[in-house]
Specification:
The structure is a homodimer of 243-residue chains. The first copy, chain A, has helices at residues 4-9, 23-32, 40-44, 46-55, 77-87, 95-119, 132-159, 173-188, 190-196, 201-211, 214-220; strands spanning 11-14, 37-39, 66-69, 72-75. With 243 residues, the first copy, chain A, is α+β, with helices and mostly antiparallel strands. Chain A folds into two domains: 4-88, Glutaredoxin, CATH 3.40.30; 95-226, Glutathione S-transferase Yfyf (Class Pi), Chain A, domain 2 (Up-down Bundle), CATH 1.20.1050. The first copy, chain A, has a four-stranded mixed sheet with strand order 2-1-3-4. In chain A, β3 and β4 form a beta hairpin. In chain A, α2 runs parallel beside α5 and α8 (173-188) packs across α9 (190-196). Chain A starts with a helix and ends in a 23-residue tail after the last helix. The interface between A and B is large, with 42 and 42 residues. Chains A, B: One of its GO terms (molecular function) is glutathione transferase activity. Chains A, B: Residues 10-92 form the GST N-terminal domain. Chains A, B: Keywords: Transferase. Chains A, B: Residues 94-233 form the GST C-terminal domain.
């Protein structure tokens, strides 16, 4: 519960209220950086989100998540995180970290999109059941080729950083996002991720570091955090998983 | 041909040498902003790119395109463009334009990824011929739902800008990228784009403005610019197109 002043200063955060989805990447940074926000669609419902999307004439968002502040909106997950980190000086600073973290975040979002497309390979407008045969084929390549390729890349990237974080000596929005990516992969592909466990030690270590961050414990224990389910980006369809 | 001094100052630009692909978005900004660069894989071949990718211990790129400068690499198309625009002060400045242009660029890249996935809906590791039946289904939704949804969004976004560009009174990397997106859609889906021609007047206008930019005419007439072909992101498979 925010005080009145904080409530006036708070960002309006907009995302679908029933799934973690891409919104969770923004929530993690808002929470860990202690940035006041109102999760508007969870307060007022999905209809309010749809109405707000239609309302914006300037700086419209193609899709949620987006944040509204000073009468304008900022959309695209990586762009929102980049903005918040700079505006609130949350995370490593310096030019090198700045572009490197955005690069890593965009690579994380690429893998998130691929993880989504495994269960929706043909169209987001079709139900999973309407493209299940195609999803079974897509899942094979994602499990066997893409997950190892991405995790090996992140593990290699972490090897070049001394502090154990993606950039420098402290955590950044990209570390928080990477944690959620691993959470999502473990939820959606438990058998495959169990097989790969231990193969990418730095990936496991980074996930554990973020899971233990004091800045996130209150959020993790709160109902502000949504659970994965079969409507979101990461879905557990047993038939799409394998060791 | 660059002079010796420019050659020393030039960025090493790395992308697959036989396709415009995502590299073209970077080339357009390097050329329009008159930033010296060497198209390394076009000079030395794809093998040189593969060797360079393996060589970088710090700041590795998950995939091309990337630029190398001061001994480090910057990857992810939107990140490269954001870096170049800031470093070389090319394009509109100001905080609002900064995040807005990155947001638009990321939305452009989302549509680029969807356009690619139409002909590779199951896996990039499979040939088109191995997923042609799925591509036919994916193309239907992309043509009928996604192209209109994206173009209507960009048209609406342009309506909120007075100057006719995506931000402010002058062109930006996002305008250049949007031009190439429309070029790619017209190449890959000529029948569909012909049907939609005129429905999004601001989209057509912006494409024409960039096509006529004095800063790009030398590039357009040079062999530095690669033509679309059936190996790239945008491919013309007649069976995937329809009015």
């Amino acid at each position: 519960m925010m005080r009145g002043e904080e409530r006036r200063m708070a960002y309006d955060f907009w995302y679908w209220p029933s799934i973690p989805g891409r919104g969770e990447f923004v929530r993690l940074t808002l929470e860990a950086c202690a940035i006041p926000y109102r999760d508007r669609a969870r307060e007022d419902g999905a209809e309010a989100l749809i109405a707000d999307m239609a309302r914006h004439d300037a700086g419209p968002a193609f899709a949620p998540p987006y944040i509204a502040t000073d009468g304008r909106t900022i959309a695209q997950t990586a762009n929102i995180l980049f903005y918040l980190a700079e505006r609130h000086e949350c995370g490593p600073s310096g030019l090198k970290a700045r572009y490197w973290l955005l690069q890593v975040q965009l690579t994380i979002m690429d893998m998130v999109a691929e993880a989504h497309d495994v269960h929706h390979p043909l169209s987001s407008a079709l139900y999973y059941e309407e493209q299940k045969a195609e999803a079974l084929r897509a899942a094979h390549g994602f499990r066997d080729q893409r997950i190892p390729k991405y995790l090996a890349y992140f593990d290699h990237a972490l090897a070049s950083e001394a502090g154990g974080w993606l950039a420098g000596e402290r955590w950044s929005y990209a570390d928080l996002s990477f944690f959620h990516l691993v959470e999502g992969l473990r939820y959606a592909f438990p058998l495959r991720m169990a097989t790969l466990a231990g193969r990418y030690a730095r990936v496991e270590d980074l996930h554990g570091r973020v899971a233990a961050l004091p800045e996130l414990q209150d959020y993790f224990g709160s109902n502000r955090r949504l659970s994965f389910n079969d409507q979101g980006v990461f879905r557990h369809y047993p038939e799409l998983d394998a060791p």
